[in-house]
What we know:
The chain is an all-alpha fold. The chain is about 80% helix and about 0% strand.
Amino acid sequence: MAISLKRRNDTTSKPESMTLVEHLTELRHRVLVCALAFIVAATVAFIAYNPILAFLKEPYCQAAPHHCTFYITGPLDGLSLRVKISAYGGLFAASPVLLWELWRFITPGLNPKEKKYAVPFIAASIVLFSLGCLVAYETFPHALKFLDSVGGPSLNQILDPTKYLSLIVLLMTVFGLTFEFPVLLVSLEVAGVLTPKQLSSWRRWAIVLIVVVAGVITPSSDPFSMIALAVPLYIFYEASIIIGKFIRR
């Protein structure tokens, strides 16, 4: 076993010497570790269902403090909601392991310059994604108030927890992925595809495009979420120009 492990580590450090079967074996090992991490995290999320639901429900209670109650219409809705929360929670909690296994799988194929930038890019991606989720979570109560009032006073809102969960998770995911925008721009600058001078010259068009994109991809379609998405994106655009100038020195 010790010999086989040593050979496996040696081939991992030299991907060009690995056969197709060894690549597939390495991939299977990474996938199994990721699957195990997800199952464990999802099980923990299933057990911690009530605290997680209370956390996700908090924006609704801020928007409607006197009647923040969910209603279900089918006997299986409660189980379905718990399974979905377990899946989302497991994916979120296991994401560091998933990223680590992905990093270990692609690292041997990177050259020294790429490895130099890979760790900062991955760390920045995790931080920015988490920041995007936080901004979406903090903005969601305002979005709910807007969505409740836009239909007029004659409508009484009764929320289905499954639809509510889908909306808040989708909103947090969209914000998290969109907040990766500066990582993409800086990566293109490092690769030489874009230059800070080009980005500076495109500033006016970038503002228009950012506002349009924020309005289109915001799942709740409310002005609060759109502004909360568009403003950071423009700040990230300017930050990408500054970082690009620093890198190219």
